[in-house]
User: Which sequence fits this backbone?
């Protein structure tokens, strides 16, 4: 199997059952035009987030790491009437692109983009949130986990992106700060009796990585 095959399968799924639309395509194009990093979730991953949030009836969603708002569009579309998405973004330039993309998708009233370091913004939030998507600086993952847990309720779900690191997460001797932080995240999750978690390895247009999903009890 190769990256070419993984990308081709994603393309097949996108055209048949994922079916990203004009607003999502425009969000990607606007992000590229603004020269944002090409690190947003893939369309199948975005729809997975949407389906997870919809399946649990999430009314309040918190995202850490907005980038250009692509995943925020998927998440905001999962909300019922009266629902709310708050998404935190470190870069004011990225936040500007995200706000425009959310407005183009007709979601400006549902989604609020807040700008600043996530760990500084999180204490200003009032919980509980039903669903969390964390896709920001990996070095902050252990701290984001603890901060989000304080904003969760029994039944809340968290999803962490990029937690396999192309298999490097197995390497206890790694000097990569992202790998070391993800390993600390897993240690913290394993030691926390209030959560039940799993991780899945993924391949696709974004390469080889994975997601960690956990449920708060």
Assistant:
């Amino acid at each position: 199997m190769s990256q070419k095959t993984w990308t081709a399968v994603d393309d097949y799924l996108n055209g048949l059952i994922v079916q990203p639309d004009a607003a999502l395509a425009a969000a990607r194009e606007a992000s590229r035009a603004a020269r944002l990093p090409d690190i947003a979730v893939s369309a199948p991953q975005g729809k997975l987030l949407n389906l997870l949030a919809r399946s649990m009836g999430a009314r309040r969603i918190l995202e850490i790491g907005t980038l250009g708002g692509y995943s925020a569009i998927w998440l905001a579309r999962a909300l019922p009437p009266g629902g709310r998405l708050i998404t935190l973004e470190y870069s004011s330039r990225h936040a500007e692109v995200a706000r425009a993309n959310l407005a183009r998708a007709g979601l400006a009233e549902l989604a609020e983009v807040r700008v600043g370091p996530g760990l500084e913004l999180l204490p200003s939030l009032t919980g509980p949130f039903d669903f969390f998507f964390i896709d920001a600086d990996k070095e902050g993952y252990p701290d984001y986990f603890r901060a989000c847990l304080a904003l969760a309720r029994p039944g809340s779900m968290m999803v962490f992106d990029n937690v396999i690191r192309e298999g490097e997460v197995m390497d206890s001797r790694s000097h990569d700060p992202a790998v070391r932080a993800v390993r600390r995240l897993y240690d913290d999750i394993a030691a926390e009796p209030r959560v039940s978690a799993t991780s899945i390895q993924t391949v696709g247009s974004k390469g080889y990585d994975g997601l960690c999903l956990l449920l708060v009890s």
Observations:
- Strands lie at 60-64, 84-89, 111-115, 131-134, 157-161, 195-204, 207-216.
